[in-house]
From TrEMBL:
<dbReference type="InterPro" id="IPR017853">
    <property type="entry name" value="GH"/>
</dbReference>
<dbReference type="GO" id="GO:0016052">
    <property type="term" value="P:carbohydrate catabolic process"/>
</dbReference>
<dbReference type="InterPro" id="IPR018120">
    <property type="entry name" value="Glyco_hydro_1_AS"/>
</dbReference>
<dbReference type="GO" id="GO:0005829">
    <property type="term" value="C:cytosol"/>
</dbReference>
<keyword id="KW-0378">Hydrolase</keyword>
<comment type="similarity">
    <text>Belongs to the glycosyl hydrolase 1 family.</text>
</comment>
<feature type="active site" description="Nucleophile">
    <location>
        <position position="367"/>
    </location>
</feature>
<keyword id="KW-0326">Glycosidase</keyword>
<dbReference type="InterPro" id="IPR033132">
    <property type="entry name" value="GH_1_N_CS"/>
</dbReference>
<protein>
    <submittedName>
        <fullName>Aryl-phospho-beta-D-glucosidase BglH</fullName>
        <ecNumber>3.2.1.86</ecNumber>
    </submittedName>
</protein>
<dbReference type="Pfam" id="PF00232">
    <property type="entry name" value="Glyco_hydro_1"/>
</dbReference>
<dbReference type="GO" id="GO:0008706">
    <property type="term" value="F:6-phospho-beta-glucosidase activity"/>
</dbReference>
<dbReference type="InterPro" id="IPR001360">
    <property type="entry name" value="Glyco_hydro_1"/>
</dbReference>
């Protein structure tokens, strides 16, 4: 047993991450319009409703909209160097296609970023995180319609200009590659998934990729000091066996996700997509200027990492795991979380090396964490807490592998754990699936005081940050 000493660079950005739609609440306050999340009470996996319903936990979230000062203070106590959050597009442009922004929405994020900066916490802001304005979804079929590029440009230009002296780090679209699996949640596409053609789906992806590159161009014009990255869902695929057909299947499955990073980092469509498009009767409609816009590549690659998956060319063995949200065969050598997500710390080292070898651009881990059932107890001092040693173990083991990747030569700017404070799950819209260092007293039946309590992991992460990773334990 030994400590990992001096592997994390000076200035490493330790922190945590949330999304506006999963924590803010206040879904109809201060001029905010409805988003696609406001009528999705069961999360990614469920159906949508005609109007917001009381059983949608996201409508209140954890009331971050009213309690952000209290929460930022707790993040500062842990020693956060950065805090990743998102801007709710429909707070700024309630319908998405509005000409003028909503000043009260803009002011809220002014206040939020000021609060972060007061404690020396660098905001890391996602421009679009799974919440397209509902009117853009209903009236335009989301990103299937090219007009969304213009609406997004107006939105991005507005927030870049407003916060140019407060926010340095930006992400364009959250997990942009997830749209191939969850077109409504990720790309606001109103057409039901089972009726959506691959042609329309990949045309929508093209529109998002152009909009993302356009945001990079605009952001650098407004403030050349901006660091603007893409954000992809990172799931490495291992061949189930050494059989060549399994190895090739893993390569193909990887490319489904890597395609999006390739365009963002290299500024053009990779040639391997030509075969995919041909075999699926897809013809991307390129407008004049699109190829030039795509050349505005990102400054860094950010990604989420929760699990790896296996791939096989044998149809009889291609049995997907229930917890693997975007597919993949379960790995027989790995254990799984309470929600069936396979736990693979070494997969994080693997994908860090894969991305850095492929792109030679700085990386940023902006989501990693363990969703688990937490039990609030009263300790011997009369304080309410959660003894979440399982979370500590999970994060420790993943961060040890991050340190190994840095030793491998990977340039990594920072690490933000997902759901640093308990929030509503994106995949299931539950609050019982908890990720945070801070317990929020709210439950799936709507009860609870919304009070905040520090878990055992709160103090553990505080020490990790204060020692710049030296407190991590390598159990290998």
């Amino acid at each position: 047993m030994q400590n990992n000493i001096n592997k994390f660079p000076d200035g490493f950005l330790w922190g945590g991450a949330v999304a506006a739609n999963q924590c803010e609440g206040a879904y109809n306050e201060d001029g905010k319009g409805l988003s696609t999340q406001d009528i999705a009470p069961r999360g990614i996996m469920g159906a949508i409703t005609e109007e917001p319903t009381e059983d949608n936990m996201k409508l209140i979230g954890i009331d971050f909209y009213h309690r952000y000062k209290e929460d930022i203070k707790l993040f500062a106590e842990m020693g956060f160097k950065t805090f990743r959050t998102s801007i709710a597009w429909s707070r700024i442009f309630p319908n998405g296609d509005d000409v003028e922004p909503n000043e009260k929405g803009l002011q809220f994020y002014d206040n939020l970023f000021d609060e972060c900066l007061k404690y020396g916490i660098e905001p890391l802001v996602t421009i679009s995180h799974y919440e397209t304005p509902l009117e853009l979804s209903k009236n335009y079929d989301g990103w299937v319609n090219r007009k969304l590029i213009g609406f997004f440009e107006n939105y991005a230009r507005t927030i870049f200009t407003r916060y140019k002296n407060k926010v340095k780090y930006w992400l364009t679209f959250n997990e942009i590659n997830s749209a191939t699996h969850f077109p409504y949640m990720s790309a606001g596409i109103w057409t039901p998934k089972e009726q959506l053609s691959k042609q329309d789906l990949y045309q929508a992806m093209h529109h998002e990729l152009v909009a993302s590159a356009l945001a990079v161009k605009i952001g650098h014009e407004i403030n050349p000091e901006f660091k603007i990255g893409c954000m992809v869902l990172g799931i490495p695929n291992y061949p189930l066996t050494p059989k060549p057909s399994d190895v090739l299947k893993a390569m193909e499955q990887d490319r489904v996700n890597l395609f999006f990073g390739d365009v963002h980092a290299r500024g053009e469509y990779p040639r391997y997509m030509n075969r995919f498009f041909k075999e699926n009767n897809i013809e991307i409609k390129m407008e004049p200027g699109d190829k030039e816009i795509l050349k505005h590549t990102v400054d860094f690659i950010s990604f989420s990492y929760y699990m790896s998956a296996c791939a096989t060319g044998d149809p009889e063995k291609d049995i997907r795991g229930k917890g693997n949200l975007i597919g993949g065969v379960p790995n027989p050598y790995l254990k799984a979380s309470d929600w069936g997500w396979q736990i693979d710390p070494q997969g994080l080292r693997y994908i860090l090396n894969q991305f850095y070898d492929r792109y030679q651009k700085p990386l940023f881990i902006v989501e990693n964490g363990l969703g688990a059932f937490d039990e609030l107890i009263t300790d011997e001092n009369g304080n309410k807490t959660v003894n979440d040693d399982y979370r500590i173990q999970y994060l420790n083991d993943h961060l040890v592998q991050v340190a190994e990747a840095i030793e491998d030569g990977v340039e990594l700017w920072g690490y933000t754990t997902w759901g640093c404070i308990d929030l509503v799950s994106a995949s299931t819209a539950e609050l019982r699936k908890r990720y945070g260092f801070i317990y929020v007293d709210r439950h799936d039946d709507g009860t609870g005081t919304l009070e905040r309590y520090k878990k055992k992991s709160f103090y553990w992460y505080k020490e990790v940050i204060s020692t710049n990773g030296k407190s991590l334990i390598n159990n290998n």
